[in-house]
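U., I forgot to send this yesterday:
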Amino acid sequence: MRLLLVLFSCSDGGDTNAEGDSDSGDDEGDTADTSGDTGGVFDPPDWCPAPTAGRQEVTDTPASPYYILHPDVVAAPIVLFLPGGPGDRGSAGATWNAFFDDAPRGYRIVVPYVTEDGYPQTVVPPSAALLDEVLLCFGGDPARIHLAGHSNGGYLAYNVVGPQLADRVVTITGMPAYFEAFQKADFGTVAFHNAAGDEDATWLAAMEAAHETLQSNGFESQLTVWPATGHTPGPRWDGRAGMFAFWDAN
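Result:
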């Protein structure tokens, strides 16, 4: 099942280079455990940065820049989460802080960002190349790739990146989400998760419409309305567990 998403009004901001982020992919730090059961020794190319503990920032590789959080094993599923707002470094940091913490919960979590103006209409993160790089440098399960996005990132997930990665992702999550144009042929068997806050009136209605469209076209679609939540999750948001539960189920 595949998903399409459209948002243009979000302005996530602020450079949130949290303590523990590195300014380059190979900064010193405790290395993550990559000795999981992978059927052999994982041996990335020499140009790949070494994985570090906590949220790592990679900036000096072909598919960078992006933030990444490593699980305890190499062959873990991947979540590619597209930030909202202008999609820049500040947006990526704010999106990460809103949706994630330091617990990977068995996933390799990747949040890319752009360094040019034009996101999301003209500048899109190199999603296919990024997935290839993450799998090559850090590992992952190529059969368990989840695409997600918030606000503008949700638009990209549903309408731009989703169709491009239709043969590689197993789920698409949009927060919130709606279709610019739904083309059933673009999405094979992807499962969708449509989520928004109950105080985000405009996008909640659009998300509900997307959910109905998906179901009417025979796709598996989950609808989640977060209580006491606006366009961007705040301190009262309690949707993280449900988000990971959706990925666990698929």
